[in-house]
Structures are given as C-alpha cells and as structure tokens.
Amino acid sequence: MAKELVLPSNVEAERTVLGAMLIDTNALSVGIGSLTVDSFSDVDKRNKAVFRAMEALTKRHMAVDVQTVHDELVTMKLDKEAGSPEYLLELINSVTSTSSIDHYIKIVRDHQTLRELLVQIQKIQDDYAEKEIRDIGDFVANASSSISEIANARQVGDFKTAAEAAKEMEIRMDQMAQSDTGDVTGITTGFKRLDELTHGWQKENLIIVAARPSIGKTALTMNFAYNAAFKAKVPVAFFSCEMNANDIMQRLVASRSYVAGNAINTGHLTKHDRVAVAGAIQEISNTKLYIDDTPNAMIGDIIAKATKLKAKEPNLGLIVIDYLGIIRSAGKAESRQQEVSQISAALKTMARQLKVPVIVCAQLNRGAEGSETKKPMLSNLRESGSIEQDADLVLLLYREDYYEGHLKKKQPYGQAQNEEQEEKKADEPKKDTPGDISILQVDLAKNRNGKTESNIRLVFSKAYSRFDSPTEEYQHAYQKFDERRANFSLDDDE
Questions:
Q1: Residue-wise pLDDT tens digits, 170-212
Q2: How many angstroms separate the first and last alpha carbons of the chain?
Q3: How many other CB atoms sit within 10 Å of the CB of residue 231?
C-alpha cells in the first residue's frame, strides 16, 4: 500500500507573518506583495481565511486591523472557520518583532514551493501510471518543464546595496584593464564593427538574429558560434532544430578550408582541397563546440541540456539556437503567439541564470517585402512582439541580391572604378565570383546597453558559408558606389 504523502508546512511561521501584518502597515504591504492564499498550508486552514480577508480589505484600500479583519471574515462567512476574533488576538500575541517578517515570509514561500514540487512529482507519477505514454521524450520534457517552472518561480533575490554593486563594478573594471582583449569585454563576435558596437556578446544577454528565409541567418550564427569557440577559446553550445550535425560540420569545414560545400558534399576534391579540408577538420576538432541536432526541440529540453553542459563546462561562453520558430513548449498555449512569448521569456531567464549570452535565430514576416527598400524593421519580427521586448540585442539581416528582381545594381568587389570602366565591365560576359560573394547588411536595430547602427556590411561567401569583415578599401569603394547610385533612378521605366 502506497504511503500517504504528507506535505510540508511551517504553521508557526505562517502565524508570525499574519500577526505582523495585523499590527504593522509595512509588514502588511510586504506580506500582500509576496504571498498568496496558496502560500499557506491546509494544516491550519484558519491562516488561509485570515489572509483572504486581509487581501480583500487591501484591494478595497481599507484599513487592516483586528476589528476590520473580523468584520470581513463575518461578511465572507469565514469567522467561525477562522475562530475570529480570538484567533486574531492569538496571532498578534505570537509576534515579538515585525522587523523579521522577510525571514518568516521566506520560510512560508519555501514550504509552498516544496509542497508544489512534491504535488507535481506525484502528478507525474500518476500520469505515468494512468495514461498512455506515446512519446517518452515528450513526457520527460513536460515533466522537466513543469518542475523547472516551479523552481524558477521560487527564485527571489535580495537587494544589493549601492556599495556592493559599486564594488562588483570596480572588480569587473580591474579585470577588463588586465585583459588583452581591448574594447571587447564579452565574447568576440569575430567581426570588427560588431565588436566595436557591442563590445562582444555579454553575459546574460538574449540576442535575436532575424531575417527572411535563405538570407543567411543560420550561416551567420554558425560563424558567431565558431568565432567564440576558436578565437575566444570558450565552450559553445549550438542547438540546431532544423539541420543535422553532419550538415553543420560540412558548412564549418567549408568555411575554414575555403573549399565549396558542394565539392565537400559530393567528394569531388582536388589534392589541394583534401589537404585544406583535413586541416579544417583538425582545427574544428580542437575546439569545444557542442552540437545538439534534436529536431522540433522542446524548450524544457534545451534548458535542461544547456544547464547540464554549464555544469560540465563552467566556462561556457555562448549558446546559439537555430531557430525560434521550431521550438515548442510543453504547456498548452492559447495561440502560437502566446507560446512564442513564453519561449522567449524562458530563453531570457536561461541566459540570466546560466550567465551566458544566448543567440537565437528568428524569422521575419513578409511585411518588409511590401516596402520599397525591402529592408526589415523590428515590427517585422514574426509571431510575437515579446521577442523584441525580451531581447537585449536585435540584428536584422538584409541582402540586396536576395531581391534581385526588385533592384538593379552592380556590386563593387575591389577598388573603386570610374563610370567608363564600369560600363565596359557590364558589357563583358559575366564570370562567377570565387566563393559566390554577396554582401550582407546587418542592422543592429536594438542595443539595450549601447548605440544602434544600420547597414553594417559583412562579406558573405555563400559557397563557403563564411562571413568576413570588409577591408577599408572595400568600404571606401562601396561608399563611392552608394553616392553614385543615389544620383540616378533605379526605375526600369526611366
């Protein structure tokens, strides 16, 4: 016969809290703001009745004392259940000082959390015994998510004094001064201009990289992940919800070897290519890049795996997730928008708890394609406005060649050329540019702790899934090109 579950409680702490709330308005405010009826156990149901009466009076902005609480209990027909007014006087007599209410509130909340945890564990066991388990992975993810939700709800930090916060800042400044990373105080992005604007990916930040399909967000975030693992030499977690580990490795090898991904995939390699690929594989193998390619991942699974990896690799430097639109939550949401909001909030919480920057790919809706420039805006973030709210940084990606049918252009790839040279070149047969070069424009549309900037250019070698910062020569050439293009119409009819 199964042993009956006895739920934990601390009735004396509950009584002390209620007594302090009856005689001290500050204690009343703290108690009402920190507790709910469910914070009190069923061991002495009088405590729940008294708190319910206090809460009702407070909502109506009425005074809370022995008389008003007794009257409210009578109105609610709970006076006999609460033993009022005798029990109210007993509560007051149990208080020696109201200054320790925070301590007793913590005790009450801790016991509430423990009760909820034990009840949830019992529910998980009952579901296992009584319901058909069609997918073990889903069952474990749901169980893990429900337990994590209870644990996260418990976390209540104490205030830090200004002196404590200032001391932490002083220590951090000293550490930065002694480092040799220059202005990069976080994990390098691998790209000069982004590092200048962000100072690297910062701990606890949620970074959203958003674009329309096939623009290059997966390739870019893979470059971010590898730059952190290779250049910053930190462990990196890469969650790929859509692409398997073999495809990811193929792209990384192409990026590091400058051998086209198609050639690697087919095995049509020259002797030089094989040497380059072997060197790239060796380089990648020496990093601490961890890849999880579970399809249609659950948010609970991602958090659990990231937490486990953090325990194994305390120096975990970056978490990358590709992509938000495929992640599912364990609970039932009223809409996909609400589900995405919950997932976004959970990812931000994970970043803060693990003290690791988290980069997440997201898709943009078609709104940008209806504009004249085709360039995306924050309002184009798909499915939920809470993504923008939760994010510390938002990077919006754009490529002109993606919209070749909308704009006529000639991209400069080297030194600036005069108009006569450009016209002559336009009449010549087109040749494939090595690496299938494209220019990715990055709009740092949100930067919670710094300035934003649009049109940050990166050179995208599509054949190699590789990004590089443009040279100063290239930047100068592109500036001239922009100036010339502004002087004539791109309308086909003119």
A1: 766 676 666 555 678 899 999 999 999 999 999 999 999 999 9
A2: 88
A3: 14
CATH topology (fold) of 11-131? DNAb Helicase; Chain A (1.10.860)
295-342 pLDDT, tens digit each: 878 888 888 888 889 888 999 999 999 989 889 886 666 788 888 888
- 167-189 burial, b if ≥16 CB within 10 A, otherwise e? eeeeeeeeeeeeeeeeebbbbbb
User: Tokens 């499915």 appear where?
Assistant: 383
Cα(112)–Cα(8) distance, integer angstroms: 8
Closest CA to 51 of 2, 88, 9, 77: 88
What is the third-level CATH fold of 186-419+433-485? Rossmann fold (3.40.50)
For tokens 């909001």, the residue is: 341
Residues with Cβ within 8 Å of residue 187, at least 6 apart in sequence: 200, 201, 228, 232, 234, 317, 318, 357
Q: Tell me the CB-side half-sphere exposure of residue 449, using CA atoms within 13 A.
A: 15
Show me where the domains of the chain are located: 11-131, 186-419+433-485
pLDDT of residue 194: 94
Structure token pair of residue 410: 């000639």
Which burial class, exposed, middle or buried, applies to 218 when counting CB atoms under 10 A from its CB (0-12, 13-18, 19+)? buried
Dist. CA 28–CA 91, nearest whole Å:
14
State yes or no: pLDDT of 16 exceeds 50: yes
- Locus of tokens 């599509």: 462
Angle between helix 299-312 and 136-154 (nearest 10): 70
Cα–Cα distance measured from residue 344 to residue 285, given in angstroms and rounded to the nearest whole number? 32
Q: What H or E segment, with its residue span, contains residue 419?
A: helix 419-427
pTM of the model: 0.66
The radius of gyration of the chain's CA atoms, rounded to the nearest angstrom, is 30
74-129 per-position pLDDT tens digit: 999 998 888 888 999 999 988 888 888 888 999 999 999 999 999 989 889 988 88
Rounded (5°) CA angle 443-447-453: 35
Q: What is the DSSP letter of 4?
A: P
Do the Cβ atoms of 34 and 105 come closer than 8 Å? yes
User: In 10 A of CB 53, how many CB atoms?
Assistant: 25
Residue type, 374: K
Question: What pLDDT digit, counting tens, does each position of 433-450 carry?
Answer: 456 888 999 999 999 988
Closest by alpha carbon to 359, among 315, 323, 306, 307? 323
Percentage of the chain lying above the pLDDT 90 cut: 44
